[in-house]
Amino acid sequence: MHARARKRFGQHFLHDRNVIDRIVSAFDPKPDEAIVEIGPGRGALTWPLLERVPRLHAVELDRDLAARLPTLAAGRGELIVHQADALTFDFSALARDDRRLRLIGNLPYNISTPLLFHLIEQVDAIDDMLFMLQKEVADRLAAPPGTKTYGRLSVMIQWRFDVEPLFEVGPGAFHPPPQVDSSVIRLRPRREQGIAILDPDSFRRIVRAAFGQRRKTLRNSLRLLLDDAAFARAGIDPRRRAEDLTLEEFSRLSEVTPTKSAPDC
How far is residue 205's CA from residue 265's CA, in Å, rounded to a whole number? Predict the structure, then answer.
Protein backbone atom coordinates (compact mmCIF):
# COMPACT_ATOMS: atom_id res chain seq x y z
CA MET A 1 0.00 0.00 0.00
CA HIS A 2 1.45 3.36 -1.07
CA ALA A 3 -1.12 5.80 0.29
CA ARG A 4 0.21 9.31 0.70
CA ALA A 5 0.68 10.59 4.22
CA ARG A 6 -1.88 13.23 5.11
CA LYS A 7 -0.67 16.09 7.25
CA ARG A 8 -4.11 16.73 8.75
CA PHE A 9 -4.08 13.20 10.21
CA GLY A 10 -0.52 13.59 11.50
CA GLN A 11 0.54 10.54 9.50
CA HIS A 12 4.13 9.31 9.56
CA PHE A 13 4.20 5.75 8.25
CA LEU A 14 6.60 3.34 9.94
CA HIS A 15 8.74 1.41 7.44
CA ASP A 16 11.93 0.28 9.23
CA ARG A 17 11.75 -3.50 9.43
CA ASN A 18 14.06 -3.75 12.43
CA VAL A 19 11.94 -1.31 14.41
CA ILE A 20 8.75 -3.10 13.40
CA ASP A 21 10.18 -6.44 14.54
CA ARG A 22 11.29 -4.94 17.89
CA ILE A 23 7.83 -3.52 18.52
CA VAL A 24 5.99 -6.74 17.70
CA SER A 25 8.49 -8.79 19.72
CA ALA A 26 8.07 -6.48 22.74
CA PHE A 27 4.30 -6.69 22.42
CA ASP A 28 4.43 -10.51 22.07
CA PRO A 29 0.82 -11.13 20.98
CA LYS A 30 -0.81 -14.50 21.66
CA PRO A 31 -3.49 -16.15 19.47
CA ASP A 32 -6.20 -16.14 22.15
CA GLU A 33 -5.83 -12.45 23.07
CA ALA A 34 -8.15 -9.58 22.17
CA ILE A 35 -5.88 -7.18 20.30
CA VAL A 36 -6.67 -3.75 18.90
CA GLU A 37 -4.34 -1.68 16.73
CA ILE A 38 -4.84 2.08 16.74
CA GLY A 39 -3.94 3.82 13.49
CA PRO A 40 -2.80 0.88 11.33
CA GLY A 41 -1.97 3.18 8.41
CA ARG A 42 -0.37 1.13 5.63
CA GLY A 43 -0.24 -1.99 7.79
CA ALA A 44 3.40 -1.93 8.93
CA LEU A 45 2.45 -3.46 12.28
CA THR A 46 -0.81 -5.01 11.11
CA TRP A 47 0.66 -7.69 8.89
CA PRO A 48 3.26 -8.97 11.41
CA LEU A 49 0.54 -9.02 14.07
CA LEU A 50 -1.73 -11.12 11.83
CA GLU A 51 1.12 -13.62 11.46
CA ARG A 52 0.77 -14.27 15.19
CA VAL A 53 -2.94 -13.91 15.87
CA PRO A 54 -5.98 -15.12 13.90
CA ARG A 55 -8.06 -11.97 14.49
CA LEU A 56 -7.17 -8.31 14.87
CA HIS A 57 -9.30 -5.22 15.38
CA ALA A 58 -8.01 -1.95 13.92
CA VAL A 59 -9.28 1.60 14.41
CA GLU A 60 -8.46 3.88 11.48
CA LEU A 61 -9.75 7.41 10.88
CA ASP A 62 -8.56 7.75 7.27
CA ARG A 63 -11.44 6.50 5.08
CA ASP A 64 -9.18 5.54 2.17
CA LEU A 65 -6.84 3.48 4.34
CA ALA A 66 -9.73 1.89 6.22
CA ALA A 67 -11.30 0.80 2.91
CA ARG A 68 -8.08 -0.73 1.55
CA LEU A 69 -6.88 -2.62 4.59
CA PRO A 70 -9.47 -5.48 4.59
CA THR A 71 -8.68 -6.29 0.94
CA LEU A 72 -4.96 -6.33 1.60
CA ALA A 73 -5.54 -8.56 4.63
CA ALA A 74 -7.11 -11.30 2.51
CA GLY A 75 -5.35 -14.58 3.23
CA ARG A 76 -3.43 -13.15 6.19
CA GLY A 77 -6.10 -13.49 8.87
CA GLU A 78 -9.27 -11.80 10.05
CA LEU A 79 -8.84 -8.03 10.14
CA ILE A 80 -11.84 -6.09 11.49
CA VAL A 81 -11.43 -2.44 10.58
CA HIS A 82 -13.40 0.21 12.46
CA GLN A 83 -13.42 3.41 10.42
CA ALA A 84 -13.65 5.77 13.37
CA ASP A 85 -11.95 8.48 15.38
CA ALA A 86 -9.93 6.85 18.16
CA LEU A 87 -10.55 9.93 20.31
CA THR A 88 -14.23 9.04 20.60
CA PHE A 89 -14.17 5.31 19.91
CA ASP A 90 -15.62 3.01 22.59
CA PHE A 91 -12.76 0.54 22.99
CA SER A 92 -14.45 -1.12 25.96
CA ALA A 93 -17.17 -2.41 23.62
CA LEU A 94 -14.58 -4.75 22.06
CA ALA A 95 -13.72 -6.42 25.38
CA ARG A 96 -15.81 -9.59 25.53
CA ASP A 97 -15.80 -12.98 27.22
CA ASP A 98 -13.96 -11.51 30.22
CA ARG A 99 -10.96 -10.77 28.00
CA ARG A 100 -9.40 -7.37 28.47
CA LEU A 101 -7.94 -5.62 25.47
CA ARG A 102 -4.33 -5.33 24.45
CA LEU A 103 -3.75 -2.11 22.52
CA ILE A 104 -0.89 -1.34 20.17
CA GLY A 105 -0.16 1.45 17.75
CA ASN A 106 2.08 4.02 16.15
CA LEU A 107 0.03 6.95 17.42
CA PRO A 108 -0.30 10.16 15.39
CA TYR A 109 1.58 12.80 17.36
CA ASN A 110 -1.24 15.34 17.09
CA ILE A 111 -3.70 13.16 19.03
CA SER A 112 -1.54 11.15 21.41
CA THR A 113 -2.18 13.20 24.56
CA PRO A 114 -5.99 13.51 24.22
CA LEU A 115 -6.13 9.85 23.21
CA LEU A 116 -4.31 8.81 26.39
CA PHE A 117 -6.79 10.79 28.48
CA HIS A 118 -9.61 9.05 26.58
CA LEU A 119 -8.09 5.64 27.33
CA ILE A 120 -7.74 6.43 31.04
CA GLU A 121 -11.54 6.40 31.19
CA GLN A 122 -11.60 2.87 29.72
CA VAL A 123 -8.83 1.41 31.84
CA ASP A 124 -11.03 -1.37 33.26
CA ALA A 125 -11.29 -2.90 29.77
CA ILE A 126 -7.54 -2.78 29.09
CA ASP A 127 -4.88 -5.37 29.87
CA ASP A 128 -1.93 -3.41 28.52
CA MET A 129 -0.92 -0.88 25.85
CA LEU A 130 2.23 -0.57 23.77
CA PHE A 131 2.54 2.67 21.81
CA MET A 132 5.00 4.54 19.66
CA LEU A 133 4.83 8.17 20.76
CA GLN A 134 6.70 11.40 20.30
CA LYS A 135 9.63 11.13 22.69
CA GLU A 136 8.59 14.31 24.46
CA VAL A 137 5.21 12.80 25.30
CA ALA A 138 6.75 9.50 26.39
CA ASP A 139 9.13 11.39 28.68
CA ARG A 140 6.16 13.20 30.25
CA LEU A 141 4.38 9.90 30.92
CA ALA A 142 7.31 8.53 32.90
CA ALA A 143 8.46 11.80 34.52
CA PRO A 144 8.94 11.85 38.31
CA PRO A 145 7.95 14.80 40.53
CA GLY A 146 10.36 17.71 40.62
CA THR A 147 11.21 17.61 36.91
CA LYS A 148 10.23 20.02 34.15
CA THR A 149 8.51 17.27 32.17
CA TYR A 150 6.32 16.23 35.12
CA GLY A 151 2.79 17.52 34.57
CA ARG A 152 -0.90 16.75 34.47
CA LEU A 153 -0.44 13.92 31.97
CA SER A 154 2.27 12.36 34.18
CA VAL A 155 0.03 12.37 37.25
CA MET A 156 -3.12 11.13 35.55
CA ILE A 157 -1.34 8.30 33.72
CA GLN A 158 0.71 7.21 36.74
CA TRP A 159 -2.47 7.16 38.82
CA ARG A 160 -3.92 4.40 36.62
CA PHE A 161 -0.92 2.82 34.86
CA ASP A 162 2.59 1.53 35.44
CA VAL A 163 4.82 3.16 32.82
CA GLU A 164 7.69 1.28 31.17
CA PRO A 165 9.80 3.08 28.54
CA LEU A 166 11.24 0.51 26.13
CA PHE A 167 13.38 2.08 23.40
CA GLU A 168 13.79 5.16 21.22
CA VAL A 169 13.30 5.44 17.47
CA GLY A 170 14.84 8.02 15.13
CA PRO A 171 13.02 9.96 12.40
CA GLY A 172 14.49 7.82 9.63
CA ALA A 173 12.23 4.90 10.57
CA PHE A 174 9.23 6.78 9.16
CA HIS A 175 7.99 8.16 5.89
CA PRO A 176 7.80 11.07 5.81
CA PRO A 177 10.31 11.46 8.65
CA PRO A 178 9.02 13.54 11.57
CA GLN A 179 11.12 16.38 12.95
CA VAL A 180 11.31 14.74 16.37
CA ASP A 181 12.48 11.49 17.92
CA SER A 182 10.01 8.83 19.00
CA SER A 183 9.80 6.35 21.87
CA VAL A 184 8.09 3.02 22.38
CA ILE A 185 6.45 2.72 25.78
CA ARG A 186 4.38 0.11 27.60
CA LEU A 187 1.49 0.98 29.93
CA ARG A 188 -0.03 -1.58 32.29
CA PRO A 189 -3.13 -0.73 34.36
CA ARG A 190 -2.68 -0.76 38.10
CA ARG A 191 -5.24 -3.32 39.26
CA GLU A 192 -4.38 -2.70 42.89
CA GLN A 193 -3.71 0.98 43.39
CA GLY A 194 -0.86 1.81 45.71
CA ILE A 195 -2.57 5.15 46.36
CA ALA A 196 -6.29 5.01 47.01
CA ILE A 197 -8.11 7.94 45.36
CA LEU A 198 -11.29 8.30 47.40
CA ASP A 199 -12.83 10.98 45.18
CA PRO A 200 -11.66 10.64 41.53
CA ASP A 201 -13.63 13.69 40.39
CA SER A 202 -12.00 15.88 43.01
CA PHE A 203 -8.60 14.42 42.16
CA ARG A 204 -9.04 15.27 38.46
CA ARG A 205 -10.17 18.77 39.32
CA ILE A 206 -7.22 19.44 41.64
CA VAL A 207 -4.63 18.14 39.17
CA ARG A 208 -6.12 20.10 36.28
CA ALA A 209 -6.21 23.36 38.24
CA ALA A 210 -2.75 22.94 39.76
CA PHE A 211 -1.01 22.39 36.42
CA GLY A 212 -3.19 24.92 34.63
CA GLN A 213 -1.01 27.57 36.25
CA ARG A 214 2.07 25.52 37.06
CA ARG A 215 4.38 28.52 37.54
CA LYS A 216 2.21 29.75 40.40
CA THR A 217 2.22 28.45 43.96
CA LEU A 218 -0.52 26.05 44.96
CA ARG A 219 -2.10 28.80 47.05
CA ASN A 220 -2.66 30.80 43.85
CA SER A 221 -3.41 28.06 41.35
CA LEU A 222 -5.91 26.35 43.70
CA ARG A 223 -7.31 29.49 45.31
CA LEU A 224 -10.83 28.77 43.97
CA LEU A 225 -10.77 25.25 45.41
CA LEU A 226 -8.79 25.33 48.66
CA ASP A 227 -8.09 27.77 51.46
CA ASP A 228 -5.12 27.72 53.86
CA ALA A 229 -7.09 25.64 56.37
CA ALA A 230 -7.61 22.94 53.74
CA PHE A 231 -3.90 22.90 52.90
CA ALA A 232 -3.18 22.51 56.60
CA ARG A 233 -5.56 19.55 56.86
CA ALA A 234 -3.79 17.92 53.94
CA GLY A 235 -0.37 18.67 55.40
CA ILE A 236 0.73 20.45 52.20
CA ASP A 237 2.64 23.75 52.17
CA PRO A 238 0.63 26.08 49.88
CA ARG A 239 3.85 27.83 48.82
CA ARG A 240 4.90 24.75 46.85
CA ARG A 241 4.21 24.28 43.12
CA ALA A 242 2.35 21.53 41.29
CA GLU A 243 5.45 20.00 39.71
CA ASP A 244 6.84 19.19 43.18
CA LEU A 245 3.85 17.19 44.44
CA THR A 246 3.72 13.40 44.45
CA LEU A 247 0.68 11.38 43.47
CA GLU A 248 0.00 10.71 47.16
CA GLU A 249 0.08 14.44 47.94
CA PHE A 250 -2.38 15.24 45.15
CA SER A 251 -4.60 12.54 46.63
CA ARG A 252 -4.48 14.22 50.04
CA LEU A 253 -5.45 17.56 48.50
CA SER A 254 -8.39 15.94 46.71
CA GLU A 255 -9.69 14.64 50.06
CA VAL A 256 -10.04 18.15 51.51
CA THR A 257 -11.68 19.67 48.40
CA PRO A 258 -15.40 20.51 48.53
CA THR A 259 -17.45 18.36 46.17
CA LYS A 260 -18.21 20.04 42.82
CA SER A 261 -19.01 18.94 39.31
CA ALA A 262 -15.69 17.94 37.77
CA PRO A 263 -14.60 18.51 34.18
CA ASP A 264 -13.30 15.61 32.11
CA CYS A 265 -9.78 14.57 33.01
Answer: 8
